[in-house]
UniProtKB/TrEMBL annotation:
An annotated GO BP: lipid metabolic process
Residues annotated as domain GP-PDE: 7-228
Name of protein: Glycerophosphoryl diester phosphodiesterase
Entry's Gene Ontology molecular function annotations: phosphoric diester hydrolase activity
Lineage of producing organism: Bacteria, Bacillati, Actinomycetota, Actinomycetes, Kitasatosporales
Length: 257
């Protein structure tokens, strides 16, 4: 069975070439275009509410330099006109689709507990999985022994066995430029799935598919879905079909860096 038919297509911060990243409109647009999952960046407000924001401040997307940790969730809502959703709102807006929660910044047990609690209260535990570096994923594992984890790793050298035993990741999550045939083979040989981020060209996606990547996170979800569908058609297999979702208004903005 070829990689093109089995790869999970993950939309990086939604559909950032069409909508402002990490907004409800961006997430819904990505799912409309065939994403199997959406990746969202999560941080806590001053009052401990998990919201969708990649940066430490609102400056890049919302022209406000104040750090998120200095603002309450209600203040963020007022400043952005509701443009920065809470994690609970994002989970409600994505229906039964998979959500990859990337925990940004320094993540300790308090942050992990708050995020895991929202996921549980939303009834989304069976469709949410978490990604970030080792410190954050150790905190998530402590908060939820059953959590599905994609450990983000940045070097070709593998994680230490003791670290893998402590985190128990289902996925290893690599920047796409690090991945070669030997690394892909090692991840699979060790019984884990290979996740990569964030190739945005036809050539880079094709290379990763040929290497056997199990999941690709991209800013150009429409291109990845088209590649997957083309190969499915060529092989005589049915292409993945998504439910139609109503179009939602959103704020245009720059793609993720």
């Amino acid at each position: 069975m070829g990689a093109m038919q089995t790869v999970t297509a993950v939309a990086h911060r939604g559909d950032p070439y069409r909508f402002r990243e990490n907004t409800i409109g961006s997430l819904r647009s990505a799912l409309d275009q065939g994403a199997d999952a959406v990746e969202v960046d999560v941080r806590l407000t001053r009052d401990g509410i998990p919201v969708l924001l990649h940066d430490e401040t609102l400056e890049r997307l919302w022209k406000l330099r104040r750090p998120l940790t200095a603002l309450s969730a209600e203040e963020v809502r007022g400043i952005t006109g509701g443009g920065v959703p809470t994690l609970a709102e994002a989970l409600a807006a994505t229906g039964d689709s998979r959500v990859m929660v990337d925990l940004c910044g320094r993540v300790g047990r308090r942050t992990a507990d708050r995020v895991v609690d929202v996921v549980r209260r939303s009834g989304a535990g069976d469709r949410v999985y978490y990604c970030a570096g080792a410190e954050a994923m150790l905190a998530v594992r402590a908060a939820d022994p059953a959590a599905e984890i994609a450990l983000t790793w940045t070097t070709h050298a593998p994680p230490r066995p003791a670290l893998l035993d402590a985190i128990r990741p289902r996925w290893l999550n690599y920047r796409f430029s690090v991945v070669d045939r030997d690394l892909a083979a090692r991840v699979h040989r060790d019984g884990r799935l290979l996740s990569v981020w964030t190739p945005d060209t036809h050539r880079s996606m094709r290379r990763l598919l040929d290497l056997g990547a199990d999941s690709i996170t991209t800013n150009r979800i429409g291109l990845l879905h088209a590649l997957r569908s083309q190969d499915a058609y060529a092989s005589g297999r049915p292409a993945v079909r998504r439910r139609e979702r109503p179009r939602q208004p959103g704020c245009p903005g720059p793609p993720a860096a």
